Amino acid sequence: MTTYWAEFALLPSGLAQNVRVEVAAGRFATVQTDVPQGDAHRLPGVLLPGLANCHSHAFHRALRGRTHHGGGTFWTWREQMYAVAGRLDPDSYLALARATYAEMALAGITSVGEFHYLHHAPGGVRYADRNAMGEALRQAARDAGVRLTLLDTCYLTGGLTGDGHTSLAGVQERFTDGDASAWAERVRDLKDDSGFRVGAAVHSVRAVPGDQLAVVRAATHGQTVHAHVSEQPAENDACQAYYGRTPVEHLAAAGLVDDRFSAVHATHLTDTDIARLGAASATACFCPTTERDLADGIGPARALLDAGARVSLGSDQHAVIDLLEDARALEMHERLNTLQRGRIQPEELLTTATAHDSIGWPDAGRMERGARADLVAVRLDTIRTAGSDPGQILLSATASDVDTVIRDGEVVVANGQHRLGDIGRLLADAIGPLLDQRRNQEPP
Ligand SMILES: [Zn+2]
Fold it and tell me: How confident is the model at residue 90 (pLDDT cuts 50, 70, 90)?
């Protein structure tokens, strides 16, 4: 039994003071308020539940700060992303993902949903272990101290136009299993463990033909399923032109939109789409720091919440890994759109940042008796947070203000330091070889 105490904590009932928690076997045994520290270990600042990063592509971390020259679009950014994807193997992916997940842990993230489609070797050649890349991600998360849900992604076609689906080209051959049945068969070989769960994803309506969606649905009944949905207007236009309906309507017609479904981005939705996601109690996973980086647009977060949908957060391409910033951006983007403040209250923002249930961990994300013992201590005495109301800490703190991170009762970050040591160095060592090759391949 380990006991912690802090002056403030954000509990399910709201902001509490003088909070003492007992942790046993990775769970909260007791959570008490208005009690003295006694012999408990004191944590600084305000305690938050562990944060859930519900949409990650770990390898995109190699693109940070390298995609801004000359402008471009989402689609030209995608070409740069494919260049990195083309160079990874299970060993280099393990190194990059380990460092990336450690960066997430430093930001207070305890669960990660990895939207994983980089399955096979160049040319689509199978590794001896067909799940070698997924297993590299499992090991990376274990080393970095985060829980992982591998949202193994069905990805079958190169794109969608008004004339139908296009063929896979170049690096996309690494993503496909051929058809949805073969994808499901490979995924069945992956096994859950105490810190790892297998989920599923449809890459998008662009990458999975309509007849294959039914196969995915049959293989994943009752499971967590995610899909990129309406991130760009061009996807909506193509889906309307070929299938005669929006991506949400198309996925719903295949039976995929239910309370275990997450629509990732959900940026360009119709009123009918919003109502459908709300009626299903589905989740919309917003990735605000990515969506602004890629000029995607601002999704209808308030409208989705009002319709009955849930909202989660992801750092997606990792232009930024700071879920506090993503939570804040949800509100700030609403303000810019509506010219109103207070669109999404601080308590609602915390709920979006702790949506562990949307990636299959329903017993995490709340500081209460019996729940998984995840704690994030955010300092209230830094140059960013000094003077902040602890109840509004999501509106001022950054990942740099995270002092301590405990996952399942295990200390992963203490005094702002990850247990693996210098994570900046780990990142540089993992990304460097990928960048050198990129430079060599750039035309003169
Ligand atoms: Zn994504």
Answer: very high
Q: How far away, in angstroms, is 253 Cα from ligand 1 center? A: 22
Interatomic CA distance for residues 290 and 298, integer angstroms: 11
SS3 letters across 282-349: CEEEECHHHHHHCCCCCCCHHHHHHHCCEEEECCECCCCCCHHHHHHHHHHHHHHHHCCCCCCCHHHH
b/e per residue 419-441 (b: at least 16 CB within 10 A): ebeebeebbeebbeebeeebeee
Cα 57 to ligand 1 centroid, rounded to whole Å: 6
How far does the centroid of ligand 1 lie from the alpha carbon of residue 1, in Å?
39
Q: Tokens 């460092």 identify what position?
A: 99
What size, in residues, is the chain? 444
Q: What is the pLDDT of residues 55-67, one digit of tens each?
A: 999 999 999 988 8
The angle subtended at Cα 43 by Cα 42 and Cα 45, nearest 5°, is: 125
Helices (H), 162-246: 180-188, 210-219, 233-243
Determine the pLDDT at residue 441. Answer: 46
349 half-sphere exposure, CB direction, 13 A CA radius:
26
Compute and round to an integer the Cα radius of gyration of the chain. 21
Whether the per-residue pLDDT at 263 is higher than 70: the answer is yes
Active-site residues, by number, are 265, 316
Cβ density class 56-77: b for 16+ within 10 Å, e for less: bbbbbbbbbeebeeeeeeeeeb
Q: Are 371 and 364 in contact (CB under 8 A)?
A: yes
* Burial class of residue 442 (count of CB atoms within 10 Å of its CB; 0-12, 13-18, 19+): exposed
Find out whether 416 and 405 touch, Cβ atoms under 8 Å: no
315-326 pLDDT tens trace? 999 999 999 999
